[in-house]
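Possible race condition, two jobs.
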Amino acid sequence: MNDFNKIMHTIKNNFKESVLFILLIIFLIIIAYFRLKIQLDIGPMYDTYDLLANAALFAGKNIGYSALRPPFLSFLTSIIFRFEGLSINPIFYLDAIIDVLGVIGLYFFLKLRFNALNSFIGSLLYFTFPIILTYVGAGIADLPSVSISIWALYFTFLAVKKDSKYFLLSFPLAMISFLTRYNQALIIFPMFLIIFVDWPNIKKHKNIIIGTILSLLILIPFLIFFTFKYGNPLYPFTNFYGTTSGTVSTQNMDYNTDLFFYIKLLPFAMGNAALTIILVIAGGLTLSWIKLVQGKKSLPNITKPLKIKYKWKLILILITAAIFILSLGKVSYILSEILFFILCLGSSKLLKINPDYDLDLLFISWFATFLIFNSVYSIKDVRYFLQIMPAFSYLLIRGLVLIENQIGLIKQRKLTFYLAPLLIIIIIISTTFYLPTILTVNQGNNEFNIDMAAASHWLINYDPNYKSEVIYSDLWANSGWDLQTNVQIMPEFQNNQTYIGLDNYKPDSEAVNNFLVNNNAEYYFSITNGLNLSSYIPIKQFGKVIIYKRLV
């Protein structure tokens, strides 16, 4: 009878898990569908045009213009270009598909720690964070790279804890994530942290070597391509490293040295459902401390796995932590990452942290690794939030579970059981109201896309030989794609220096004019107001886009 009850209990649990998983897929498809419709109305973002141009190059349909961007998303898009011809929409669909797959990976990842309901809430919460919704299907590499990283870290954990053959998947996926967006190389820190923490328990270490070789096989074709294109197989990587570690102009519109920039804006990135969970966690902590004062059951003794055998171990860890904190923002982000890695590894090894907490350590390391990088890096952008949001969703659910274990509810039901309907309602309402705002906020981008396409089409008819002329543009990526030719970057001028992305840029007509003349420009597509060019006249205007032609 007991065996029968166990079988029925297993069937019942599997049925519930299957229903929740199917429900999650339905939610993801619906949200992705409506987000894609919005993106099709908005059109490409600036970065998207670069990726499209590179995809055309990979497909053997070079338009004369390409950009120094990570290649993988462009490579996937180029496969469609080979069969369907050049168009904009495929990159949106590919982006959305990868984003949805990333959420599915996160669901399986969360199930390693939580039950199906908590994993469902955590995954859906992640996908409906406002910052995530903003970039789902947007046709840029940021969110797809994060989605691939989720699977890379998931398989790494499985390789460490269950079967080292998963390294044959985790390392190649980590490489693909890196080739999708170069800063995803930082996932090596949480990856190697969990590997080193559980090194003695890993069976067949040779699978790490095999996985590494497989990842290098993925990299080699791109290195060969970079060699032919740039003359140096490592040029895109050294260029990226030079950008992130070098000095950034204080005049850049995104220049910001505030180490707490992302912490301050986190409430705006997480959404109403996440804020609700944080309020519940805060309320639960308050209740637990009240119980503690009253002599009742309090929070579990989480210090038990951290029992210290030798005082010098604690001192060593505290010294490392002090050096990390004092040096943060004052040294290269790489040094900060290494210090934090040593701190995590030392805490685990020297204090002999319970293996049950390894998953917590992995997600904390994942969260902190990208928070450190983005906080120290002097260029700040809200889309860099994407890199920490999977780990943040885990930490939210972890906190919720810790609290629900302290609250006695009817028939031993967990807190999430009663909270889930409220959270789902909040998610649906918040998502329904937030999605239309994406179109509203990006209306200017939509207008630029329309105006630049119209201006480009006009020039094609006005001058059939335009491809033989030198053309500059303020939106050179847009112009290059629309004209299907190499359009030059128009810089900004200040104090006899050239910049890209100046804050509060005030155009210098003389400097602009002299630059165009010295570079033999025949046409200039401008969205800059207040120009008075002595050697060029405006010949056509579409919205905010003005076409200038050189005087004979």
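Job #2 (started ~2 s after job #1):
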Amino acid sequence: MAGCDRMIKVKIHGEEKQYEAGTSYEAIVEEYQKQYEGRIALVSANGKIRELSKQLKKECELEFFTLSDPIGHKTYVRTAIMLMIKALRDVIGADQIKKLKVEFSIGAGYYCNVKGNFTLDTELIAGINKRMKELVEADLPIIKKSYPLREAMELFAGQGMKDKEKLFRYRRGSFVNVYCLDGYYDYYYGYMLPSTGYVKYFEVAAYQEGLILLLPEADAPDIVPPIEHREKLFNTLKQSDEWGNMMGIDTVGDLNDQICKGNINDLILVQEALQERRIGEIAKDILERGGVKFVMIAGPSSSGKTTFSHRLSIQLRTYGLTPHPIALDDYFVNRDQTPRDEKGDYNFECLEAIDIEQFNKDMTDLLAGKTVELPSFNFKTGMREYRGAYKTLGEGDILVIEGIHGLNDATSYALPVESKYKIYISALTSINIDEHNRIPTTDGRLLRRMVRDARTRGTTAKRTINMWPSVRRGEEQYIFPFRESADAMFNSVLIYELAVLKQYAEPLLFGINKGEPEYHEAKRLLKFLEYFIGVSSDNVPNNSICREFVGGSCFHA
């Protein structure tokens, strides 16, 4: 910085260097970029994440995050979304856009609901891509400025962003960080890259009624994957959006409005009723299918599979069927036979951790009318046990089988296809922070698991966050590839649940100390929860999926 000759000590990779006060982190990063395979996106100064546009002010130790790191990849996605919205406004005209909401992820893409006085035809899509490339080539700065809360609300109101105006009505802080790109102002939850030149890889394409922004994944930051057409997943997410619109809740600001108006009890009851109706529809489809003896339920961690299987069983009973729950976990191989991963740890996620042959033998015997003694896995001893749980299938009997491999046909290879009905369940977040800031599905599930594991297993939030990447890898490998093979999908997210989970999760997250590897993630989640007005769980029904996590369920969950 001109006129500033104060030198500051900086430690990088164990080496001590000196830079002038006011030097940008981006300038420092340029010296080290060649040592990294991926583009450096952020720095950590004494354990605190800093954007590259920030300037050096005091002595520190620096660490770098690339676009391949989870936090760096999220920063890339966020910046690419701002770039796309800027291009849309330039090509279409801001006054012609009535709605522009970044809805949910489909594969490596982000689906956007765009409505206004235009048609999303091939020519317009090409124009958006062309404008985005022009902005990237211009390498325009993305300028961050802190505005007083009232000024920020007026700024967004002037740009027609009523959702942001509503969001900040409930903000406790006095200032808001606003990003500006070539005259376009917006708010983003999380860090941003310093300029448009960093966003080199993207593609905008038409998808369903809107468009999709395709971006590289963290493990391949310079490759834009093709569109993945996941019709069942899309329709499930769209139905959840329609439920939210019906209740008048599109964003966190809408939810906070309803809470402040005293409408939370009615909101809970309506949301629970909508889920119950959907469960009833699935039960009816199972009945009408005819010949179904095995209902296979699978989904990622903290999807609410246990509560869902109980509620589905109740609905099946209303049609005269007699459901019997079976957990695939009871067919775990004995601990000494459990495969290990590359680190030498037990791999409980892989298919080989299940005694598939015994499972298929037992199921085919039941289908043939034989009496079978079903196992129970003792997680303390690591052994499969038999305790006299004999079962024979009658005419109206149906087995409700729950486990992460339920959708994989290799799990039930010996069972006739017509005897199986497969259900995919997940917590697919349907509410946004605001129209341009979506809530990742994984955040909701992580908070669910954190709260449940602390209550039922005494697991710390630090441990849950530490384990989460491994859990996610297992889901990507063993669950997600089989989603579209499901006969039915169920979204277990409750539109009010984050306001309830807030009270339980915050104390756990505050227990993670600065300097611990999980601190950055804990701080991010705490900031995220600040958007919500907390509500008590007192009015949550005892059969709700939410109860599986906060406690008080009428089921053994």
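The first helix runs from residue 25 to 32.
Logs attached separately.
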